[in-house]
Amino acid sequence: MTFTTPPYLTQDVSVRRIMLHVLAALVPAIAVYVALIGPAVLVQLGIATLVALLGEAAMLKLRDKPLALFLGDGSAVVTAWLVALAFPPLAPWWLITVGTLFAIVIAKHLYGGLGQNPFNPAMIAFAVCIVAYPSLMSQWPPVDAGNGIGEQLALIFGQAPRLDAMSGATPLDALKTALKGADSGLTVASVLDNRAVFGHVGGKGWEWVSLAYLVGGLWMWQRKIIGGQVSAAFLAGMALIATALWLLHPDQFANPLFHLVSGGTMLGAFFIVTDPVSGCTTPRGKLIFGFAAGLLAYIIRVFGGYPDGVAFAVLLLNICAPLIDHSTQPAIFGMKK
Amino acid sequence: MLQLFKFKGGVKPETHKAPSLQAPIAKAPLPEQLIVPLHQSIGGVPQPLVEVGQHVLKGQRIGAADQWVSAAVHAPTSGTVIAVEPRLAAHPSGLTTASVVIAPDGREEWIDRQPVDYHTLAPERLREHLRDAGVVGLGGAVFPSHAKLSAAKSVPMEELVINGAECEPFMTCDDLLMRERAEEIVRGITVFRDLLEPRKVLIGIEDNKPEALQSMREAVARLGVDFTVTAVPTRYPAGGAKQLIRVLTGKEVPASRRSPEMGVQCFNVATAYTAWRALAFGEPVISRIVTLTGNVETPRNWETLLGTPLGEFIRLGAPKPDTDRYLMGGPMMGFEMPGLEAPLVKASNCIIAGSPALFPPPAPEMPCIRCGACAEACPHELQPFELYWFSRARNFGKTQEYNLFDCIECGCCSYVCPSHIPLVQYFRFAKSEIWARERDKNQADAAKSRFEFRNERDEREKAEKAERLARAAAAKATEKPAAEKPAATVPAEETPPANAPVDADAAKKAAIAAAMERARLQREAAQVKNTDNLSTEQREEIARIDARRARAPAHQAVEQTDVAPPPAQEQ
Ligand code: SF4
Ligand code: SF4
C-alpha cells in the first residue's frame, strides 16, 4: 500500500488549464490585430512560440526537469505570445528571437523556472530590446500601410530595406512627438483631430485591439482565471492621474480615455499585471501593485523618453512586490482588528 | 430567523452523499472478533482493567480513564478476552496500539445497566459519569466530552452550538442519525445545556439535509425546548467546529484560544446522542453509526460495534473488485486505513472504499505559481503558499510567523491548487518538525540545567574542599586552643562574639570553630531529618511506635497486608 495523504479529492484545475485560458483570451485581440496589420502578426507569434518552446526545452534539459510535464504546462507559449504582441509586428525575426530567448532563458529559467521569476518575462524582453534597439522597437506600421504578405515577410526576414516610411510611430509616440515640438504651438486637441493617425478615441485601429484585450480579460475574469482586482486597480491608477492632469491642463494632456485604450494599457491590465508569479498576492497588495503600476506607466509614457511606460512600470513594481506583500499580510481568522 | 455569518474561503466538492442515504441505519452483525484499542480519544491512555481469559459482559469497562482528559472504553459485547496486546491501530502510520481482543460468546449479555436521572447528579458527578461511559466527540475529533462541559469561570456561556453540518463528502452518518433518532439527540443536548447554561442553543445543519432539518425541528418542538435549528449554507468545511461557530454566532475562535473563553462551546449531534444513551439507558459508548460507501455495491449506514475489524465491516457493503484502498473519515480530512485488521473506533464516522476511478492518483506536483487560489480557499485566511514555501525551505520560524498552527488541515488549499501541491502534507511535516524540535529543546534544556547544576556542585565542592584544607592547616597550627574551645558555645551564625579577639590568630580560630560547628549541625540535620523540631511528646510517641514495631510478631504484619482489597474489576 502506498502512502497517501488527504485530501483525496481535488478540483479539476491545473497550470496547463490556466495557461490555455490565457491563450484563448488573447485570441480576439490577435484576430483584430491581424485584420488591421496583416499576417505579420501571426508570423511573429509563430517565431516566438517556436523559439520559446526550444529555449524552454533546452533549459529544462539542462536543469534536468521532466520535459513533457513542463513543456505541456503552456507557460512558455503564454510568454511567447505576450512577447510577440508587445513587439512591433514588422520587427525583424532576430529581434523577436532575442526577446523571447531573453524572456525564457534569463528572466524565467535562470531565476529558477516556472513560478520563480521575480520579473515578468515578457516585460523583461520588451525592456531589454527597447534599450538595446530603440529604433527597431519603435517602428510601428501604420494600420493602413497595406503591405501584402510577401512584403511583410520580406521585412521580417530582412530581405527588404527597412524604409523610414513604414516606421510610423504609435499614436502615443506621435502625440508625444507632436507636443514636444512645443514651438509648433499645437494643442492636444488639434493633434488628436488628425483622425488618420488617432482614429476615434485612442489611435486609429489600436482602440479596437485594446477593446479586444478588454473582452479577453473580462472573459478570464468571468471564468475566475484572474481575480480582477489588479486589473481594475491598474486601470484606476492610470485613469486617475490622466484625469487629474487632463482637468488641470487639457491643452497639454490627452483625455483619460485616450490613455486607457492606447499603447499597452489593456494588454498590461489583463495579461501583464495579472501575472501571479511576479505580482503581489495579498488582497491589499494586489490593489497597491495594480494602482502603482498604472500610475507609473502613465508617468513614464507621458514624461519619459520611451513610447510606452507599461513595461518599466511593471518591472519596477515587480521589484517592490515582496515588500508590498510582506507589509500587507491580511489578518487571519480570529485575529482581526 | 437567525442571522447567519459567513466564513471566508471553503470549497464545494461534489457531495457523493446520495448512495448511502437510500436505506435506513442497520445493525451490523456481531463480528468474529472485536479488537478494542484502549486509546480511542484525545488525552490519557486508559489502563486495561481485564486480563486474558477473563469473561466480560457487554458494556463492561475494560479501560479506565487515567486522567481528567481521557475517557473509558468498554467491552462491545459479552465474551472472553483472548488477548491484551498491541494491535494495528486505525491510524495512517500503521503503528500498533494497546488493544483488548474479545471473542464474542454470541449471548450479547449486558452488564446491569443503570439509568440515572441526571437532574439528581451534581455537575461534577455527571461529568464523571459521562467520562466513565466513554462519551467523546464523535464528529471525528474524539475529545472527551466531559472535559468540554465546564463554562469558563470569567466568561458567561452564551451559545451552545450543536454540529449537525456534516460537511465532508460521502459521509451521512449524522444525517441519518438526525433523521431517525432526533429526539434522543435533542434530549442529549438538553443535558449539555443544563451543564453549561448557555443563553442560546443553536443547532446547525447544512441545507443539503432537508429531512434531517425537518426531523430535528420536529423533535425540538415535541420536547418543547427553545433550541434553534438552522440550515447553514453547504460549503466545506462548514462542519468544522470553528467554522460552524462563526456561521451561527459570528465569533471567530483563533488557535490561541479555547472557545469557552469566548462564551461558546460546540458538540456533535452523535455525541449528544451517546450522552443521552449513557444517562437514560446506562449504556456506555460501545457502538457508533458508520457510513460505508464509495466503491461498494450496497452503500449504507451501519450501527457498528467498536472494535469491529475493517475487513469484516466492509463485507457488509460488498466492495467492488477494483477497490484498492479504504479511507476512514471523509475524502478531505480522512486517511487511508493501514490494513484490514485495523478496527473501527470511536473516531470512525465513515469508511469509503476507494478505487483508481474514484480517487485518481494525484497529478504530478508542479512548482507553485503563486496564483493565490489556496489563500482564497483557506477558511482560516492563511497564506498557504507562503507556509508551503517556508515549510519546504525548513524555515520553521517563518512558518510560525505565518500562523502555521492556525491551520486546521482542512485540505481546501490542496483541493484548489492548480499545481497539485500536497500542501497539507507540507504543513503536517512542518508541525511535527516543530514539535520534535521543541521536545529536543526541552530535553536539551533539562540536560543543560543538569549539567549546570553538576558543574555548580563540583565547583562548590572544590571550594569547600579547599576551604577545608586551609582550615585543617590552620587548625593544625593552632591545635590546642581550638580543641579546648567547647564547640557548643559557639553560635551557628557568623556574628563574632562581642568580645572578639582583635588579633588575626584569634579571629582565625573563631572562624574555624564556627565552621566546625556548622558542619556538626549539618551532620545532625542529615541524620535526624525533620524530627528535630518535634516536641518532647511527639518524640516519645515516635519512640513508643518504634518500640512496638520492633516487638510486633511476624504474623500480624502478614494479616495486615491481607486486609487490603484486591484491585476490583469494575462493572
Ligand atoms: S494554489 Fe498552489 S500554485 Fe496557487 S498559490 Fe497556492 S500553492 Fe501556489
Ligand atoms: S489546510 Fe490549513 S492552510 Fe490549507 S486551507 Fe485548510 S486551514 Fe488553510
Task: Walk me through the structure.
The complex is a heterodimer of chains A (337) and B (571). Chain A is mainly alpha-helical and 337 residues long. Chain A has two domains: 156 residues, no CATH class; 147 residues, no CATH class. Chain A has 17 helices and no strands. The longest helix of chain A is centred in the first third of the chain and has 23 residues. The N and C termini of chain A lie far apart (47 Å). In chain A, 52% of the residues are buried. The mean pLDDT of chain A is 87. Chain B is α/β, with parallel strands linked by helices. Among the domains of chain B are: 252 residues, Rossmann fold (3-Layer(aba) Sandwich); 113 residues, Fumarate Reductase Iron-sulfur Protein, Chain B, domain 2, CATH 1.10.1060. In chain B, the strands form four sheets. Chain B has a six-stranded mixed β-sheet, with helices on one face. In chain B, β5 and β6 form a beta hairpin. In chain B, α3 packs across α4. The chains are: A mainly alpha (337), B alpha/beta (571). Chains A and B meet through α1 of A and β16, α11 and α12 of B. One iron/sulfur cluster (SF4) binds next to α8 and α9 of chain B.
Distinct small molecules = iron/sulfur cluster
Would you identify the CATH H-level superfamily of the domain at 18-29 and 115-354 in chain B? Answer: NADH-ubiquinone oxidoreductase 51kDa subunit
Tally the structural domains of chain A: 2
Helix amount of chain B, in percent?
25-40%
Structural class category of chain B: alpha/beta
Count of distinct strands of chain A: 0
From the 3D structure, determine the CATH topology of the domain at 18-29 and 115-354 in chain B. Answer: Rossmann fold
Number of separate helices of chain B:
16
Nearest-angstrom radius of gyration of chain B?
33 Å
- H-E string of chain A: HHHHHHHHHHHHHHHHH
Number of helical elements of chain A: 17
Largest sheet of chain A: none
Average predicted confidence as pLDDT of chain A: 87
Work out the strand percent of chain A. under 5%
Q: Low-confidence runs of chain B (pLDDT<50, min 5 residues)? A: 482-501, 526-534, 548-571
Average pLDDT for all residues of chain B: 86
Indicate the structural class of chain A.
Answer: mainly alpha
Shape annotation of chain B: globular
